[in-house]
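Why does residue order matter? Because the sequence determines the fold. Keep that principle in mind as you read this record.
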Amino acid sequence: TTVGDDGPPLMLKMKFLPYMVRTFGCRNGLKILEQKGVLGFEQYTTNLLMKWGMSSTAINTWRPFFSSWGSYANEMLQQNGNQRRKEGGGKGIMTQNEDLPPLTAQNYLHHLERFNKLFEEGKIGSNNCNAQSKNPCDFRGAVIVVSLNKEDASVAADLLSASLGGCRRSSNVNGISEDDMHLAMSPVDGGLVVDAVVEDGFGALRKHCKKFEDAIHVVLVGCDDEVIDASIDISMRDKKKQKGMLKGWRKCKCKTVVDVPQSCFSTASVGKDGSCDGDVDKDPSSLSESDSEELPALVKKLITLSGSLPKADERPGALLFFPGIPGSGKSTLCGAVSTESLCAKLDQMDAHMNDDGKISLSKKEGANEKTGESNSNFDRPVIVRVGDAVKEKYWPLVKRERLEHKPSLYVADKNSTPTVWNTIAEVCAESRGVFAPVLPDSAALSTTTLMFAASADGSYKREYVFPFSLQYLAVCLSRVLQRPQKSHRGKLDAATDNACMIVVKFFCLYKGLTADRVKETCEDMANEAGTVQIGSDTFFITVPFFVDNSPRDLPKDLHDALVDAIQLQCKVDSGGQADGAPIMSEIETRLRSLITSHLDMLQALTVSKEASCESFLSQIVSLTNSLDSYDISGESKVASLPKIKIVSIDVNATDVHHTLKDAAASDSSIAEFLDKGGKFDPSSIDADEKKTARYIKDTHVTMVHCSRSSQHEMRQRFGSLEGSELDVVVNGFLFNDEIAALSVEIPGKTLGNQSLDVPPSENEFAHITVWCGDGVEAVKSNSLPSMVEKGLAKKVDFQNRVSLHGVLRFWLTE
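Structure:
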C-alpha cells in the first residue's frame, strides 16, 4: 500500500482494532488533542469507553493504549506545527517518520499502524506517557522560572517541570489564581511551574506571596548583569529597565530566589522516568542565591524545601448541593447544619459499615434527645455558604473555599439547576470531594408529564416532562407566598410582583428530565468528572417532604392553573411567546388566589421542618463517617472534560450566502432584503458584534444548547457523531428588519459507508441564523416562526430545495 492509499491492505492490517476504537477514539480524538492536550484526550477516551458500557476491567485494559496513542499523536501534531506545546514534561517521545504523511484525520491509519507496532514491541507505552497524568509529583508549591526571553524561560520551565516529577505548567505568571496555588500545594495535583520574562513583573505574584510565601520559589535563568550587558539585541534603555526589574524580582518576598546560568538547562537532559541526568547527590545546601549550580542540585533543593511545608490534609470532603426550586425548604435544612448539631447527632447514633462501603446509622439505646455537651469530636470544617448573601460569583467562590478546605463538609445553600451540575462535579473532582445531591423524597421527585399544543391551531401537541410533581410545585409556591413581605434576602417573597412565576420558571429549568434521569445524570457527571466515590454509587441525600408516599391530588382549579403557568413559561423560554407579561400577570394573580384558598390543604401534605432536619443531619453524619473510613490509597483522579456550549452542524458561510443570492434571483423580497442598506457584503462578515448589524460568520444549525441539556446528555447523544459529515436541506427563508434565518431539515443519518443515526434538534425551529440587526442577538431567530404567524416577519418557501454540506461539532467554552 502506498502512502495516501487507505485501501483494503492497510484496513486488513488494522482489523484487530475494533472499528469504534479506531474511528471515535484514535481519529476523532485528534481534535480533542489539539484543543485540550493529552489529559483531555485521556478523559475523552475514558468517557467513550464508559458510554459504550464496557466493564471496569475492559476500561483499565484499554486506557494504556489510548494514553500511549495520545502521547504519540500529540508529538506528531506538534511536529506538524499545528499545536504549540501546552504541557510540560520531557523531550519528544517520537520523531516524524519520513515515509509517513503528517498526521491528520484523513491519514491517521498509517500512523496507527506504525504506533501499534511500537506499542506491541514495548517501545512506546506507560513509561513514555506524560508523567503528569501518571504519577504524583515529588514537589509541592510554585516555581516561577524567569529569563530574559520567553523561549529560554519556556525551555527551562519544561525541563524543571519534568525533573520535579511532572508538575503542571503555565506560561502566564500574571494569571495565576488562588485556586492554582491551592492545587499546587496538593501532593495529589503535583506543583506548578510557570515561565516568565523579566518584563512580566512580579506585581500579581506579590499578592500570593502574602498567603503562600513558603510555597513560592523564583528561579532566575541567565539573568546576570554581564549577560544583559553582552546582549546586542536590545537598547541601552531596555537593558537598564531589565536590570531595574530584576532587582525587584530578587527582592520578592517568597521562600527562595535562585540565580542559575542558562547553561544549566541547555546541557541538562531528562530521562524517561522524568529524572534529570547529573550529580543528584550533590549537596543542595551549597546552592546559594548568588551561586550557579547544576539542575539536579536545584531540583533537590526545591524538593527539600517543599518537604518542609506543613503536611496538607488530603482527606476527601463533601459538597452538598440542592437540585430543587425556591420554597423547597433548602435554607431551613442548611440552617440546621453546624459543627455543634452534627456532634450532637453523632452522640445519638451508632455507626455500622455496610458491604458497599457506606455507613448506616441507628439510634443508640438510651441516647438523650438533647445531649447538652457533646462527647464526639467532629474534626472537619463545616461551611454553609448562603447564595443570596454572596456578592461575587457563587460557584468560583465555592471552588476556592473547597480547594482551601478539602476535608470540609461544604453545604451550598443555593438552588442548583441542571446547568451547574457539571460545574459542581468539576469542583468536587479538583477538591477531592464527594458529589452529594440533596433531593426531596420520591413523592416530590416524581415525573410529571404534560401535553401542550405546539402549533397555532392546536393540531400538533408535544410532550413535556419534568422531574418534580405538581404537588411539590404547589407546596413550594405556598411557602414562598408565606414569607413575610420584604423579608427574604434574595427578594423572593410575598412582596415580589411575579413571585409565583419565578418559582414556575425554576420548575421549567428541569424540562426534559424525568425523576430517574435526574439521578442518572448526577451519577454520570460525578463519574465523568472523577469525583471521590463512597462505595460504588453517588451519595444521594433524600430528605422527607410529604407525609404520604402518594399525596392527594390537587384541586382541579389549582391543577389547571399550574399547568397553564407551566405552558406559558415553556412558550416564553422557547421564544414562542413574544410578550408574555400581560398573561403572566393574570396567571400570577390567579395562582396567588388559589394558593391562598387551598393553603390549609397544602400545609397538611408535608412533614414537619423538625422531621426533615432530623433526617438531613442523620444522613450527613452517615456521609462524614463514610469519609472518615475512606481509603485514599490507590485513588485515581480523572481530568474533567471541557464544557460544551452547543452541539451544532457547522456549514460554510460562503455556501449560505450563495444560497441566498440564488434565492434572491427568483424572489424580489429576498433581493430587496439583501440589497437594503448595502447589507449583503460577505467580505465584511465579522464575528458576532451584538451592537451592530452583521452577517453571521460562524453559520450553523444548533442541535442543542447547554442551557437546555446537561453535559452528560449532550455527550451521550452526540459524542459518537462529533466530526461526522452530513447534508442539511434548506427549505425556506424567514426574515424581518431585525433577524433573518434559513429554515432547514436535518437528515436522519450521517454521510459515509458507516452512517449513524442523527438525533433531532432540541430547537423546535431548525434553522441557520444568517443576519442580525443592531443590538439583536442571534437567539432571537428562534422566534421567527411565531413572528411569521403574527405578521411580524415574512417567510419564503423555496421551490427548489438546496443541500448544504455540514459537520457536526462541539462548541466548547473558553
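The chain has a mean pLDDT of 79.
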